[in-house]
Amino acid sequence: MTERRRHSGRVVLAGALLAGALATAGLAPAAVRWVLPAPSLSSLPLGPVLEGATRRGALVVGVRSYARPAPPGTPTPPEPDRYDAALARHLAERLGLPLHLVHLDPAAQDAALRDRRVDLVVAGARDRPADDGLATSEGDYDGAPGMLLALRAGPLRGTGDLAGQPVCVVQGSGWLRTLAQRHGARPVAYPSSVHAASAFMAGECQALADHEDVLRRLLQSEEWRFYRPIVDGLRPDAQAAIRLAGGDPRSRAWLGAALRDWQASGAQERARSARVGNVQFEVGLLKDGLVCHA
User: 197-212: per-residue pLDDT in tens?
Assistant: First the structure.
Protein backbone atom coordinates (compact mmCIF):
# COMPACT_ATOMS: atom_id res chain seq x y z
CA MET A 1 0.00 0.00 0.00
CA THR A 2 1.43 3.37 -0.95
CA GLU A 3 1.89 6.17 1.55
CA ARG A 4 -0.91 8.21 -0.13
CA ARG A 5 -3.36 5.27 0.28
CA ARG A 6 -2.36 4.79 3.93
CA HIS A 7 -2.95 8.54 4.53
CA SER A 8 -6.35 8.34 2.81
CA GLY A 9 -7.28 5.40 4.94
CA ARG A 10 -6.42 7.29 8.10
CA VAL A 11 -8.56 10.24 6.96
CA VAL A 12 -11.53 7.94 6.24
CA LEU A 13 -11.11 6.22 9.62
CA ALA A 14 -10.92 9.56 11.43
CA GLY A 15 -14.06 10.69 9.63
CA ALA A 16 -15.89 7.51 10.60
CA LEU A 17 -14.86 7.90 14.25
CA LEU A 18 -16.03 11.54 14.25
CA ALA A 19 -19.38 10.57 12.71
CA GLY A 20 -19.80 7.88 15.32
CA ALA A 21 -19.05 10.28 18.14
CA LEU A 22 -21.57 12.76 16.76
CA ALA A 23 -24.21 10.06 16.44
CA THR A 24 -23.59 8.99 20.04
CA ALA A 25 -24.02 12.60 21.15
CA GLY A 26 -27.27 12.87 19.20
CA LEU A 27 -25.87 15.29 16.62
CA ALA A 28 -26.61 14.86 12.93
CA PRO A 29 -23.63 14.97 10.57
CA ALA A 30 -25.21 18.05 8.95
CA ALA A 31 -24.44 19.95 12.14
CA VAL A 32 -20.71 19.78 11.42
CA ARG A 33 -19.26 23.04 10.07
CA TRP A 34 -15.77 23.10 8.63
CA VAL A 35 -14.34 26.57 9.29
CA LEU A 36 -11.13 27.47 7.52
CA PRO A 37 -8.83 29.73 9.54
CA ALA A 38 -8.45 33.29 8.28
CA PRO A 39 -5.20 33.87 6.41
CA SER A 40 -2.47 35.44 8.51
CA LEU A 41 -1.56 39.04 7.76
CA SER A 42 1.96 37.98 6.83
CA SER A 43 0.55 35.88 3.99
CA LEU A 44 -1.44 38.75 2.44
CA PRO A 45 0.22 40.81 -0.29
CA LEU A 46 0.91 44.50 0.22
CA GLY A 47 -0.16 47.08 -2.30
CA PRO A 48 1.71 50.23 -3.38
CA VAL A 49 0.75 52.29 -0.31
CA LEU A 50 2.02 49.78 2.24
CA GLU A 51 4.95 48.75 0.07
CA GLY A 52 6.00 52.39 0.03
CA ALA A 53 5.93 52.49 3.83
CA THR A 54 8.05 49.34 3.93
CA ARG A 55 10.65 50.85 1.60
CA ARG A 56 10.73 54.04 3.69
CA GLY A 57 11.15 52.03 6.86
CA ALA A 58 8.24 53.64 8.78
CA LEU A 59 4.46 53.85 8.64
CA VAL A 60 3.27 57.48 8.58
CA VAL A 61 -0.31 57.94 9.82
CA GLY A 62 -2.34 61.12 10.09
CA VAL A 63 -4.46 61.28 13.25
CA ARG A 64 -6.60 63.67 15.24
CA SER A 65 -4.76 65.59 17.95
CA TYR A 66 -5.78 67.96 20.71
CA ALA A 67 -4.31 69.95 23.57
CA ARG A 68 -4.85 68.41 27.00
CA PRO A 69 -6.22 70.50 29.89
CA ALA A 70 -3.59 72.82 31.34
CA PRO A 71 -3.41 75.74 33.77
CA PRO A 72 -4.46 79.15 32.36
CA GLY A 73 -1.65 80.88 30.51
CA THR A 74 0.34 77.69 29.91
CA PRO A 75 -1.10 76.09 26.78
CA THR A 76 0.16 72.67 25.84
CA PRO A 77 0.90 71.48 22.30
CA PRO A 78 -1.57 69.09 20.66
CA GLU A 79 -1.00 65.41 21.36
CA PRO A 80 -2.38 62.51 19.28
CA ASP A 81 -5.79 61.13 20.08
CA ARG A 82 -5.00 57.95 21.99
CA TYR A 83 -7.71 55.85 20.37
CA ASP A 84 -6.59 56.74 16.84
CA ALA A 85 -2.99 56.15 17.90
CA ALA A 86 -3.83 52.71 19.33
CA LEU A 87 -5.08 51.46 15.97
CA ALA A 88 -2.19 53.09 14.09
CA ARG A 89 0.25 51.39 16.46
CA HIS A 90 -1.41 48.01 15.84
CA LEU A 91 -1.07 48.45 12.07
CA ALA A 92 2.60 49.39 12.35
CA GLU A 93 3.33 46.43 14.62
CA ARG A 94 1.68 44.01 12.21
CA LEU A 95 3.77 45.47 9.38
CA GLY A 96 6.91 45.28 11.52
CA LEU A 97 7.56 49.00 11.07
CA PRO A 98 8.17 51.98 13.34
CA LEU A 99 5.21 54.38 13.58
CA HIS A 100 5.26 58.10 12.89
CA LEU A 101 2.09 60.03 13.81
CA VAL A 102 1.21 63.32 12.12
CA HIS A 103 -1.38 65.79 13.41
CA LEU A 104 -3.79 66.69 10.61
CA ASP A 105 -6.67 69.15 10.78
CA PRO A 106 -9.81 67.80 9.07
CA ALA A 107 -9.41 70.13 6.09
CA ALA A 108 -5.83 68.92 5.47
CA GLN A 109 -6.38 65.17 5.58
CA ASP A 110 -7.33 64.54 1.94
CA ALA A 111 -4.48 66.66 0.58
CA ALA A 112 -1.98 64.86 2.81
CA LEU A 113 -3.07 61.53 1.34
CA ARG A 114 -3.03 62.75 -2.25
CA ASP A 115 0.42 64.31 -1.82
CA ARG A 116 1.67 61.11 -0.15
CA ARG A 117 2.78 63.04 2.95
CA VAL A 118 1.08 60.30 4.96
CA ASP A 119 0.41 56.67 4.12
CA LEU A 120 -2.89 56.47 5.98
CA VAL A 121 -5.35 58.64 7.86
CA VAL A 122 -6.94 57.27 11.04
CA ALA A 123 -9.11 60.17 12.21
CA GLY A 124 -12.64 58.92 12.66
CA ALA A 125 -15.43 59.40 10.13
CA ARG A 126 -15.58 61.96 7.36
CA ASP A 127 -18.32 64.57 7.54
CA ARG A 128 -18.55 64.68 3.73
CA PRO A 129 -18.00 62.27 0.81
CA ALA A 130 -14.38 61.38 0.02
CA ASP A 131 -12.59 63.24 -2.76
CA ASP A 132 -11.73 61.48 -5.99
CA GLY A 133 -8.58 59.42 -5.83
CA LEU A 134 -9.03 58.35 -2.20
CA ALA A 135 -10.36 55.14 -0.68
CA THR A 136 -11.23 53.57 2.65
CA SER A 137 -10.64 50.12 4.06
CA GLU A 138 -13.53 47.83 4.86
CA GLY A 139 -14.86 47.95 8.39
CA ASP A 140 -15.57 50.52 11.09
CA TYR A 141 -12.86 50.96 13.69
CA ASP A 142 -15.09 52.92 16.06
CA GLY A 143 -18.64 51.65 15.67
CA ALA A 144 -19.69 51.91 19.34
CA PRO A 145 -23.20 53.26 19.98
CA GLY A 146 -23.63 56.83 21.11
CA MET A 147 -25.71 58.79 23.59
CA LEU A 148 -27.20 62.27 23.73
CA LEU A 149 -27.23 64.24 26.97
CA ALA A 150 -29.21 67.36 27.80
CA LEU A 151 -30.04 69.42 30.86
CA ARG A 152 -32.24 67.49 33.24
CA ALA A 153 -34.61 70.45 33.54
CA GLY A 154 -34.18 71.59 29.94
CA PRO A 155 -36.64 71.53 27.03
CA LEU A 156 -35.04 68.65 25.07
CA ARG A 157 -36.77 65.31 25.61
CA GLY A 158 -35.82 63.29 22.53
CA THR A 159 -34.72 63.42 18.92
CA GLY A 160 -37.93 65.21 17.94
CA ASP A 161 -36.70 68.29 19.81
CA LEU A 162 -33.29 68.50 18.07
CA ALA A 163 -34.28 70.44 14.94
CA GLY A 164 -32.18 73.61 14.75
CA GLN A 165 -30.52 72.95 18.11
CA PRO A 166 -26.72 73.10 18.56
CA VAL A 167 -25.21 69.79 19.66
CA CYS A 168 -21.61 69.50 20.86
CA VAL A 169 -19.80 66.58 19.20
CA VAL A 170 -16.25 65.39 18.54
CA GLN A 171 -14.52 65.99 15.21
CA GLY A 172 -14.52 62.81 13.18
CA SER A 173 -17.67 61.55 14.87
CA GLY A 174 -20.05 59.46 12.77
CA TRP A 175 -22.92 61.20 14.55
CA LEU A 176 -22.32 64.48 12.72
CA ARG A 177 -24.31 63.22 9.74
CA THR A 178 -26.84 61.49 11.98
CA LEU A 179 -27.59 64.66 13.88
CA ALA A 180 -27.67 66.96 10.86
CA GLN A 181 -29.32 64.83 8.19
CA ARG A 182 -31.62 62.61 10.23
CA HIS A 183 -32.61 64.94 13.07
CA GLY A 184 -32.05 68.43 11.65
CA ALA A 185 -29.73 69.47 14.49
CA ARG A 186 -26.75 71.83 14.19
CA PRO A 187 -23.72 69.78 15.23
CA VAL A 188 -20.79 71.84 16.51
CA ALA A 189 -17.51 69.93 16.22
CA TYR A 190 -14.76 70.14 18.84
CA PRO A 191 -11.24 68.63 18.78
CA SER A 192 -11.91 66.06 21.52
CA SER A 193 -14.43 64.66 23.97
CA VAL A 194 -13.10 66.88 26.75
CA HIS A 195 -13.46 69.99 24.56
CA ALA A 196 -17.01 69.00 23.60
CA ALA A 197 -17.94 68.25 27.22
CA SER A 198 -16.43 71.53 28.42
CA ALA A 199 -18.37 73.50 25.79
CA PHE A 200 -21.59 71.69 26.67
CA MET A 201 -21.20 72.41 30.37
CA ALA A 202 -20.50 76.05 29.51
CA GLY A 203 -23.84 76.27 27.71
CA GLU A 204 -22.53 76.49 24.14
CA CYS A 205 -24.81 73.61 23.05
CA GLN A 206 -28.21 72.31 24.06
CA ALA A 207 -27.04 68.68 23.93
CA LEU A 208 -23.85 66.60 23.95
CA ALA A 209 -23.27 63.57 21.70
CA ASP A 210 -20.51 61.09 22.50
CA HIS A 211 -19.84 57.40 23.03
CA GLU A 212 -22.36 55.78 25.32
CA ASP A 213 -19.73 54.22 27.59
CA VAL A 214 -17.92 57.57 27.93
CA LEU A 215 -21.05 59.49 28.92
CA ARG A 216 -22.31 56.81 31.29
CA ARG A 217 -19.03 57.07 33.20
CA LEU A 218 -19.28 60.88 33.33
CA LEU A 219 -22.87 60.70 34.60
CA GLN A 220 -21.58 58.91 37.68
CA SER A 221 -19.79 62.09 38.76
CA GLU A 222 -21.46 64.58 41.07
CA GLU A 223 -20.82 67.44 38.64
CA TRP A 224 -23.00 65.72 36.02
CA ARG A 225 -26.12 65.33 38.17
CA PHE A 226 -27.76 68.18 36.25
CA TYR A 227 -27.76 66.21 32.98
CA ARG A 228 -29.64 63.17 31.75
CA PRO A 229 -29.68 60.95 28.65
CA ILE A 230 -32.33 61.79 26.07
CA VAL A 231 -31.22 59.22 23.46
CA ASP A 232 -29.48 55.86 24.00
CA GLY A 233 -27.94 53.63 21.34
CA LEU A 234 -27.41 56.41 18.79
CA ARG A 235 -26.00 54.76 15.68
CA PRO A 236 -23.56 56.67 13.43
CA ASP A 237 -24.48 57.25 9.80
CA ALA A 238 -20.81 57.45 8.75
CA GLN A 239 -18.13 54.86 9.43
CA ALA A 240 -14.79 55.57 11.05
CA ALA A 241 -12.63 53.97 8.38
CA ILE A 242 -8.93 53.82 7.65
CA ARG A 243 -8.29 56.10 4.68
CA LEU A 244 -5.67 55.67 1.96
CA ALA A 245 -4.95 56.61 -1.63
CA GLY A 246 -7.29 55.01 -4.16
CA GLY A 247 -6.42 52.41 -6.77
CA ASP A 248 -4.74 50.08 -4.28
CA PRO A 249 -7.03 47.10 -3.61
CA ARG A 250 -4.26 44.98 -2.07
CA SER A 251 -3.39 47.54 0.62
CA ARG A 252 -7.09 48.09 1.19
CA ALA A 253 -7.64 44.34 1.69
CA TRP A 254 -4.64 44.08 4.04
CA LEU A 255 -5.95 46.97 6.17
CA GLY A 256 -9.39 45.37 6.37
CA ALA A 257 -7.81 42.14 7.62
CA ALA A 258 -5.63 44.06 10.09
CA LEU A 259 -8.72 45.83 11.46
CA ARG A 260 -10.46 42.49 11.98
CA ASP A 261 -7.34 41.26 13.75
CA TRP A 262 -7.37 44.36 15.99
CA GLN A 263 -10.96 43.63 16.95
CA ALA A 264 -10.60 39.86 17.41
CA SER A 265 -7.44 40.17 19.51
CA GLY A 266 -9.19 42.29 22.14
CA ALA A 267 -6.99 45.30 21.38
CA GLN A 268 -9.98 47.39 20.29
CA GLU A 269 -11.85 46.68 23.52
CA ARG A 270 -8.77 47.65 25.53
CA ALA A 271 -8.50 50.90 23.56
CA ARG A 272 -12.18 51.66 24.24
CA SER A 273 -11.74 51.05 27.97
CA ALA A 274 -8.68 53.29 28.01
CA ARG A 275 -10.63 56.02 26.20
CA VAL A 276 -13.36 55.99 28.86
CA GLY A 277 -10.76 56.39 31.61
CA ASN A 278 -8.86 59.10 29.75
CA VAL A 279 -11.96 61.20 29.12
CA GLN A 280 -13.09 60.87 32.74
CA PHE A 281 -9.63 61.94 33.94
CA GLU A 282 -9.37 64.91 31.57
CA VAL A 283 -12.91 66.15 32.25
CA GLY A 284 -12.18 65.80 35.98
CA LEU A 285 -9.26 68.21 35.57
CA LEU A 286 -11.67 70.93 34.50
CA LYS A 287 -13.10 71.26 38.00
CA ASP A 288 -9.56 71.81 39.32
CA GLY A 289 -9.29 75.05 37.35
CA LEU A 290 -7.53 73.61 34.33
CA VAL A 291 -8.77 74.67 30.93
CA CYS A 292 -8.65 73.21 27.44
CA HIS A 293 -6.73 75.12 24.83
CA ALA A 294 -7.82 74.69 21.22
Answer: 999 999 999 999 999 9
